[in-house]
Design a protein that fits this description.
36% helix; five-stranded parallel β-sheet; two-stranded antiparallel sheet; alpha/beta; globular; Rossmann fold; single chain
Length: 169
C-alpha cells in the first residue's frame, strides 16, 4: 500500500556513496503519500481510511516525535496535522517539519473555525470547523499539485541502464 524509499547508502571505493534510485513506482507513491498525525487513535484510523478511499496513501503517527522521525526516514507529498497533539500543538509541529523539509505542504486540521495568524505561519492551509471531507481532499490535492509543479519533473532511471560500480558483482 505504501512504498518506502530506502535510505541505505551503498559505497564503492572508486565512486563514493550511491543512493538507491527512485523507480517510477516509488516516485508515484511518494508523490501521493500523506503523513497524518493525530493522537486520537480512533480518529486517526477513521481519517486514514477516508483518505485511502479518496486515493491517498497514508502513513500515520500518534505523536509529534514519531512524525518527526518519519519525516527523517520517509518521503511524503503532504503532511496533515491535527492541531491538538501531546507535548506540542500541530502549529508547533509544522514549524519543526518546515525546518526539516521546507517544501513539504502542510495542512492543519482543527475543530476551530479560525486560528490566530501567528499559528498559521508554517502551514499552507487550515481546515477547521464547518469544512467537509471534500474541502480537505480538494485542498490536499491542490497543494500537492502545486508542489509537484514547482518541483518540476522527477528523473526516472531504469535500473537496467544504470552502470554497475566496479567490484559490486
Amino acid at each position: 500500500m505504501f512504498a518506502v524509499l530506502s535510505q541505505e547508502v551503498e559505497t564503492s571505493p572508486t565512486n563514493g556513496p550511491h543512493w538507491p534510485l527512485k523507480t517510477e513506482e516509488s516516485v508515484m507513491n511518494m508523490r501521493s503519500s500523506v503523513l497524518y498525525v493525530n493522537e486520537n487513535r480512533k480518529s486517526l484510523r477513521l481519517m486514514a481510511s477516508i483518505l485511502e478511499d479518496s486515493g491517498f496513501m497514508v502513513q500515520t503517527a500518534t505523536t509529534p516525535w514519531e512524525a518527526i522521525e518519519l519525516i527523517h526516514t520517509d518521503s511524503f507529498a503532504l503532511a496533515l496535522l491535527n492541531y491538538q497533539l501531546p507535548e506540542m500543538t500541530g502549529a508547533q509541529l509544522a514549524q519543526e517539519i518546515r525546518a526539516l523539509d521546507p517544501a513539504l505542504p502542510i495542512v492543519l486540521l482543527s475543530g476551530q473555525g479560525s486560528i490566530a495568524a501567528g499559528e498559521l505561519v508554517y502551514v499552507d492551509a487550515h481546515i477547521g470547523r464547518g469544512s467537509s471531507i471534500e474541502d480537505l481532499t480538494h485542498a490536499m490535492r491542490e497543494l500537492m499539485d502545486k508542489n509537484r509543479a514547482a518541483a518540476g519533473p522527477f528523473e526516472i532511471v531504469s535500473a537496467r541502464t544504470v552502470p554497475i560500480a566496479p567490484g559490486s558483482r
